[in-house]
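Q&A FORM
Asked by: J.P.
Topic: structure of NUDIX hydrolase

PROVIDED:
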Amino acid sequence: MDQHTPPATQFGALPFRETRGGEVEFLLITSRGSGQWIIPKGKPIPDLTPQETAAREAFEEAGILGEVDPHPIGRFAYVKDQGQPTAQFIPAVEVFALRVTQQLTLWPEMGQRSMVWLTPEQALHAIEIESLRKIVRRFANRFPKAR
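REPLIED BY: S.T.
REPLY: Here is the structure written out as tokens.
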């Protein structure tokens, strides 16, 4: 890809689970470059739909499996590897909700990132990308106890 060709849309998963008390929690991971708290995401994967790509990225980056919603819940843009000489603007990450049903003990990128389950309030505090915070806030409001 030359410097005049914009990067393609990426696909991301917003991993969530409901607690026994009916509250929602989100799984966030750190990016490998900047270490900021984000969601699993990546470039399109041939022969996979956007939501399947999002689910695959969640498996590879965080070791989670689940039910992915086929309809996107939002889009955000970000600067990849911010502050690095190779930083690039990613114009869009299409986000799909992923209800986590299984958390694995081994996965492809294990040990390359940190990850944590957070309440909506904690997640909103941890996420630096404002447009991603808006998606998390809007999605959390679907759960009565998150309001």
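FOLLOW-UP: The longest strand covers residues 88-103.
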